[in-house]
Every structure is written in C-alpha cells, then in structure tokens.
Amino acid sequence: MGKQYISTASVGQAHELDIFGVCVTNKYTITVSSDGYANFWTNKLHENSNPKETMERVFINKVGVHHVSSLESALPDSSIRVVLLAFVCFDGSLSLQYFINDVLSSLKQIKHESFANKNWAPGFYKDPQSVQDYLFCTKANGTIAINSIHYQVSNNDLTITIESLPNLNFNVSSFPHSLTVCQTEDKFLAVGFENGDVVLSDFVHGKIIYTFHSSDLQISKKSGSKSIPRVLAFSPGGTILAVARDIQSAGSITIYDVKYGENIGSLTCPSHSTKATVGGFAHDGWIMGLSFDEEGNHLLSCGFDKCARIWNLQTREREATINISVTDLDDSTHDEDQDTSIASGCTFIRKGIRSGSGGDTNEGICIISFDRGVRWYREAGGI
Fold first, then answer.
1. pTM here?
2. 332 with 338: CB under 8 angstroms?
3. Distances in whole angstroms, Cα of residue 63 to Cα of each of 13, 14, 95, 107, 157
4. Of the four, 87, 129, 201, 380, which is 20 to 30 A from 270 by CA?
C-alpha cells in the first residue's frame, strides 16, 4: 500500500520574493529567499495554528539568499546545543551564523575571509564521534572550500572559530552546481558538475573514489550539457547516493551504490512524454529538491512540474505524489490563472519534530515553492 500525506499547514506570501532553500532543525523549519531574509518557522505548532504568528525573520543579505544548510550538535561535556547555519547569497558570499539551546535571540555571525565571494552550494559534516565537524562550499572556479569548525566552551559560553584547509580540486573544468556530504565515519563528499559528472571523494585525503558520468547526457553546440546534476543526496547510512539530473526539460533520478560505484537503478514514472530521450524520467520538469527519510527507505523529490513524489527505494516505485497549487494556500493573493507553484525545494521532517496528530509517530514533509508558499504535510495513518 502506498503512502498518503495530509496537509497540516500552509503559508502564502511567506516571503516577499521567490523561495529557494529550506532546512529543518529541532525547533525550526528555516526558509530562505531572494528577498534577503531567512524565516524561522516554529515546528511545535498545532495544526490549526497560523505559522506566521510565531515566525521570526532574520535579515541576511540585500541581494538575496539561494542556499541554506544546517548542523545541529550537542557539545560534549557541556549543556550547550548549537545550531550552525550556512547561508549562501547571490553575490557569492557565505554567511555563517549560529545560535545555542534553541534561543534564536542568541544568533551570532562568524566572519572569515574565505566566505567573501565565489561561493555556491554549502554543506556540513557532523562528526558522529563528536571529534571534528566541517563546513564545505563549492566555489565558482570548480574547487570545494573545506573549513574545520572548532568549539571552545568556557563557563557555559561558546566560542566558534573556523580554520580554512586547502581547497579540494578534482581538476574538473566545470561549475560545481551541487554538493552533498555523507554523515558517517566514511567522510565522503559528492559534487555534481555542470558537465554532467558527479565526483565521489574522501574529503579527508582529497582522493577521488568514483566519477559517475551521466548516461542521459545530451549535448547541444549552442548550450552545451543538458544533464546538470541539479541536486544530490546521500542516504542516512551512506550506502546510496541519489542524483537528480536534467534531461532536457525533464528530470531523472539515478541511484548509485556508494561502496561499489555501481548504477543500481533509476526512479521513473510512466508517461507518454517524448522529452526523455534515454529511459524514463522521475519528473516532467527539472528536479529542485531531494531528501531521504530518517531510515533511508524512502526518497522525496520535487520540481518544476509542481509536485513532490515519495519513492520506495526497495521497490524503486513511486508511493505517493503531492500536487501543489496556489489554491492550497489559504492566504494567497495569486491569480490562479498565473499559477507559479513550482516546487523549489523539499525536505522530510523526522518523527517527533512536528506537533499535532501523529507528530511523534509519523514523518512530516515541507515543500517550498516559487509561488512564495511554504507547505507542511504529515504521513497519514499510524496515529
């Protein structure tokens, strides 16, 4: 039986301009936009409450923000739990900020010379042994900046310093469009380049383990590659790497075995479209978001075709589709004839994070979109 999801909350006009990024911490769902703000939406909110009533806005950069990534950690031998946030802005700058013990008013910025320009896709590594955390970001010149994060606790006060390490250079003369970090002891990093390649590496030693070439690569003399790896995601156990690539105007999802470097399948939907020239495709539009659930059994994807899909990774089949429209948004003032509900990002929300019916037993989902809406859902059943 396929999964079903129930809408629990939605917000129209959540930002003044398009929403590009979303991440979830224990207390907040965080969205970022080209309006330059990060919005912090309280997770512990009853289903009949208005999310805007408790939302807090933080100004990041006047040119707008297109990526956000988070790291959340309880520091050893202290009562401090820290949340680090990496915001990457349209001027190429990276803003690294943190707050402690879920108190947003404690938010502080960490400045470093390497954050000034040419940044694109950020990601954190949280050491499972609490030894050494890292911050990564792809750079416009094709390299990947790597920074070690150092915590110093004194009298229950926290100081964080950043140390820049030599950039990772895979000698790929192409823009590094996407990045994901494996949160296991293996210390793997995957980077998707605009030429269609995805490089899997050991980020400690800078060693390339595998390079995954696109079997769907379409070449045009005028526009070049048509198979950009737009989004990447590691499964929680680090055994699988999901890669969402463009297939002309559609989107594919390829699943790779990390240990053996094998293409172990694609996620496809039945369709009569002629846009996919090699095999099937997962979305009838570019894919903008990927997210694994906490067990690694399901993958969430979303994109330009105004929907999100939940995939069963054992059967390789689609279990659910969530279609979005401006009509979903109670306080939207958009013209339905000008529906811009392109799903620009999505994330699973762990059990126990959201309040309401089934919050402790069912996973949740958050979808952001270019109609400036934020939508939350929960899995039906099991209450």
1. 0.93
2. no
3. 19, 18, 13, 21, 33
4. 380
